[in-house]
Amino acid sequence: MNSDVVIRPPRSRADMRGIWRVDVRCWNDAYCHILPDEALPSLETVPPTSSLEERLVYATSLNESRTGRYVVAVDESAGDAVEESSAGDTTGDHIVGFAAVRWGEDTKSFVGDDEAGLWVLYVDPAWWGEGIGTRLLESVEEAIPEEYTTLVLDTLADNDVGRRFYRARGFEKRETMQVEISGEPYAVVILSRPLRS
Length: 197
Fold this sequence. Notes:
CATH superfamily: Gcn5-related N-acetyltransferase (GNAT)
């Protein structure tokens, strides 16, 4: 486990840019054998500053309203010497993972009233196997109020990396459904596990 990695809420547009980079890298590594090239995002298509600001506002409101938890994994060994962008903030290269969980009304349709939904959990592929995904999962789980008894998530059925990760942490398959990506149907599995024993 890397002791230089800290889990905390996102604080800046630079953090959101780092989240976007991790997201793109994960999609390209985990889904390249599942999805067509046109469905995979590109690191060259940088989101505008306004979009990063909107994402930061959403993450902050989720944490402050206590209807969810949004966290990032930060490589503190990167220090303050990170590249400045033309927008005047850092590039977010210090972000190596992120996770978010939601409960209450702002969840996906398959999440029950007494359940919380793991909305997203991604770790930069260069950091896979370092325990960061487990730490992110534990961090968002700790924030879930006691009245929610189960954590639920969805993942592409052919996402072997993701399914292995969740299975090793006690998640079990609950059902299968279909989603459409780039006009094509794909199987998605719903996984769940009790929050407290």
